[in-house]
Amino acid sequence: MGTPAVGQDAQVVGVDIHVVLVPTPAGSVPTPLPHPFVAQVSGATCSTVTIAGKPAATKGSTTQNSPAHIALPPGVSFQSPPSNQGTVDQASSTVKVGGKGLARVGDLVTTCNDPSDQTTGAVVGPVGTVMAG
Fold it and tell me: Of 31, 86, 95, 101, whose Cβ has the fewest other Cβ atoms within 10 Å?
């Protein structure tokens, strides 16, 4: 039957791993810790096709983590500042809009991680009535 398609402002969630510096008497220790990634699809959408009145999200659509990551305790700063960005990395292989796969609920999103971006996020909604295979 298909999966619900999504448009701009679709919610994306994931868990990123970032290296934070944890102070110790011997100096700062780089420590990988999980950080929540919560974003909405906000860029590189297809304005010629709408889903629930909003530009369609596609493979390659971008997201911006909000609020931006902060170093979580016991860390006091990041070893490398996170980009707080993500990209829809998986989409329909059979339904194309603007020449790209249409994004759907459950499609994977590559998000900022250390030491490199990883596919740790997913589109979670909202669930609409347009279905795509």
Answer: 31
